[in-house]
């Protein structure tokens, strides 16, 4: 379903239109950039990061190269519908990916055999599982993915003070119990310095607002999340699905990443049958910073080779 208006963004110098699709009974909002080459890249931002700050810099470049783009908000976040708000549930967000893939295949300019998935951080982790479950995908890109929640949770402990960690955990349990009886979510900031009650207190996480939201470019992005959201993510290990990914997979890692550890993603890439690995120095947001041109070039080359140069006919028959 398309809305009646389109936007020529002040921050994004290409035309795009607001569209919506249904997932789990909720409307998921998305930006649709109609392309010219028949291929489509489906995109989602990181942990509680909405589509604009999470995808605009890359979506613009993909579209300029001729690709269609579908950049969406998960249900309960951003402009998407759904209740409760600001709650990150792995199962719901994976279902939103399934709905997005189905919707992208119906876009008039898109060849269903030339669809790729792109995600960063938590969504980059989802890409392993999404690609494993959808052999019809032509390609997938996992950028600075959170491939192993257990390793990530252990790492986060090194960047938080014990009392603050206990408070965050207690709030998460209280919020989860409240959710069972329909209470509104207890929200905590996405990031904060060690010793504060926040989801992420790693040094590079503190750069998120500066990097993703410079000059408060996206004032509607609510940088808070339900405390319950972290409880299950700490046990989520999507990198284990890497051996099941049959499509070409590009894994981008940053060697000094303190928010989504490099080595679990490298290990996952080694287990995927058709994976390519790009390693660059820097922290979690380096692909949005000084490494942006290098990573965009690598991702565009990968998409060109696997969505345009490759013969899609075997996928169409499957």
TrEMBL record:
Residue ranges occupied by any Serine aminopeptidase S33 domain in the UniProt entry: 55-149
Acyltransferase keyword on record: no
Gene source species: Streptacidiphilus alkalitolerans
Residues annotated as transmembrane: none
PANTHER family: DIENELACTONE HYDROLASE DOMAIN-CONTAINING PROTEIN-RELATED (PTHR22946), POLYKETIDE TRANSFERASE AF380 (PTHR22946:SF9)
Keywords: Hydrolase
Signal peptide: none
Protein family according to the UniProt entry: Belongs to the AB hydrolase superfamily.
Molecular function (Gene Ontology), one example: hydrolase activity
Name the UniProt record assigns to this protein: Alpha/beta hydrolase
């Amino acid at each position: 379903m398309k809305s009646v208006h389109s936007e020529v963004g002040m921050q994004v110098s290409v035309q795009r239109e607001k569209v919506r699709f249904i997932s789990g009974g909720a409307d998921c909002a998305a930006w649709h950039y109609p392309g010219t080459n028949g291929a489509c890249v489906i995109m989602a931002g990181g942990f509680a990061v909405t589509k604009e700050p999470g995808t605009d810099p890359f979506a613009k470049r993909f579209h300029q190269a001729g690709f269609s783009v579908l950049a969406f908000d998960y249900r309960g976040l951003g402009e998407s519908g759904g209740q409760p708000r600001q709650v990150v549930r792995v199962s719901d967000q994976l279902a939103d990916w399934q709905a997005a893939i189905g919707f992208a295949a119906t876009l008039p300019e898109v060849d269903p055999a030339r669809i790729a998935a792109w995600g960063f951080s938590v969504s980059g982790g989802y890409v392993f599982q999404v690609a494993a479950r959808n052999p019809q995908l032509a390609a997938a890109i996992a950028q600075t993915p959170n491939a192993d929640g257990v390793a990530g949770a252990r790492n986060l402990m090194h960047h938080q003070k014990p009392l603050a960690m206990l408070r965050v955990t207690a709030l998460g349990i209280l919020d989860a119990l409240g959710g069972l009886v329909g209470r509104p979510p207890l929200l905590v900031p996405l990031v904060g310095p060690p010793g504060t009650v926040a989801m992420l207190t790693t040094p590079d996480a503190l750069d998120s607002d500066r990097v993703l939201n410079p000059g408060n470019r996206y004032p509607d992005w609510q940088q808070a999340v339900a405390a319950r959201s972290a409880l299950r993510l700490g046990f989520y290990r999507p990198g284990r699905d890497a051996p099941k990914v049959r499509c070409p997979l590009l894994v981008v890692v940053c060697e000094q990443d303190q928010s989504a550890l490099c080595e679990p993603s490298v290990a996952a890439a080694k287990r995927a049958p058709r994976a390519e690995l790009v390693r660059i120095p820097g922290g979690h947001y380096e692909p949005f910073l000084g490494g942006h041109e290098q990573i965009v070039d690598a991702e565009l080359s990968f998409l060109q080779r696997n969505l345009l140069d490759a013969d899609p006919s075997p996928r169409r028959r499957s």
